[in-house]
DNA sequence: TTGACATGTGACAGGTTGTCGCCTAATATA
DNA sequence: TATATTAGGCGACAACCTGTCACATGTCAA
């Protein structure tokens, strides 16, 4: 987490640093990103940087978490709008994210995530784990739409959904947009209806 | 991939290098692992190392892929033994892997994977993607047990299963073994029966 | 004015990586 | 046997990186 000193900075300087960081993380994969280049581009002395962030990872996490917070808010709205339908909300979240990534301040996030697939969890999963996110969202989920058989099924399902969404978003950067979306729809379908063939005694019309 | 020069090496030297590498990757997370320490521990000069592998990543991938090949073979056997039941095979694969990790040459793999969760995909997914693995395994899967509605459903399902297995294996290193297994069973259950509540007109006994 | 404290600053020590020219040993050719 | 050719062993080196630390500077309260 950034130190309080960082938040006391003049906003202009703060944003300059973050912008330089985003640019660097877009340019090369995480491991190759260099604090050196970031501070140079931002015109911020070495010592100061380490006053704000403990290291590169701290900075990267901050970028991800800022955006993750936005996503969580949006997810809450989408759940409400869809009457608590978890699957519908996730699909709409995909559309929302794709839209936001196309332009504006968060345009770079998509590219960063694509260049750093291993970091996917950092975007969607709270430092405290997926549990934490789910707990804040739980009230908005309509459980009657789901067939949950144990206490933890919701958590497991949520995890599956998050992983799937993340994966789809990343592939959406390289394959055709609709193709990625179609894949998401298919996987959501599998998760809803199950992949095991149904007993013949229970066939749908 | 290691150069042919690497394979021409006397087996003793080759194994010394790989052992040193495993030890280093167990010691610290991937980013912190140092080629320096590996070659020092193995008593191999710098120039030689770069003759065998292009860099640290190349070496790491090699370790993972050696093991991945074993897993794929095992998976093929398990599919045959379970009459092509994909779900049963995955569950047994979990048990198998846990057993192997407890001792022997691959004891370290579990720890490495745990210290480097982001690398999970490298273990299970072929460089060519999950598709490649599935294609080699496809014939052994009994499709009649599955309810696949589009061409790509099997591939999507396979991806879900692999991701889930990897996640469970990693958590199994930290939480109680049976707990991790129980979680895998639950998730497999969700994937089989689906998470959407069934229409009342089609209730099981 | 003076002190106390937060913050800015860049030189520095200690580490890393990949390369490159040189040397050795083994094998093929005349 | 003498010589050419080639694969491989080797370690010094340049170029880079990171995190720290002693010192400079600014700011606010007494």
Which chains make the largest contact?
A-B, 38 and 39 residues
Distance from N terminus to C terminus of chain A (CA atoms, Å) equals 55 Å
User: What would the principal axes of the Cα set say about the shape of chain A?
Assistant: elongated
Main beta sheet strand tally, sense and closure of chain A: none
Number of helices of chain A: 11
The helix/strand series of chain A, from N terminus to C terminus, equals HHHHHHHHHHH
Helix-strand category of chain A: mainly alpha
Low-confidence segments of chain A, given as residue ranges, are 201-205
**Share of residues in strands of chain A:** under 5%
Estimate the helix proportion of chain A, in percent. Answer: 55-70%
Domain HTH tetR-type (chains A, B): 11-71
InterPro entries (chains A, B): Homeodomain-like_sf, HTH_TetR
Protein name (chains A, B): TetR/AcrR family transcriptional regulator
DNA-binding region (chains A, B): 34-53
């Amino acid at each position: 987490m950034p130190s309080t000193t960082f938040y006391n900075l003049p906003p202009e300087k703060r944003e300059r640093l973050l912008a330089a960081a985003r640019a660097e993380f877009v340019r090369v994969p995480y491991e190759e990103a260099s604090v050196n280049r970031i501070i140079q581009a931002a015109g911020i002395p070495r010592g100061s940087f380490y006053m704000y962030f403990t290291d590169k990872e701290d900075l990267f996490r901050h970028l991800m978490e800022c955006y993750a917070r936005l996503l969580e808010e949006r997810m809450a709205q989408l759940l409400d709008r869809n009457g608590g339908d978890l699957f519908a909300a996730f699909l709409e979240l995909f559309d929302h994210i794709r839209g936001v990534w196309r332009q504006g301040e968060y345009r770079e996030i998509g590219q960063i995530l694509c260049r750093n697939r291993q970091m996917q969890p950092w975007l969607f999963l709270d430092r405290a784990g997926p549990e934490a996110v789910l707990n804040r969202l739980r009230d908005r989920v309509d459980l009657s739409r789901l067939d949950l058989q144990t206490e933890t099924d919701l958590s497991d399902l949520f995890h599956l959904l998050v992983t799937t969404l993340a994966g789809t978003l990343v592939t959406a950067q390289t394959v055709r947009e609709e193709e990625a979306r179609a894949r998401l729809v298919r996987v959501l379908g599998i998760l809803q209806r199950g992949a095991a063939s149904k007993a013949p005694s229970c066939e749908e019309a």
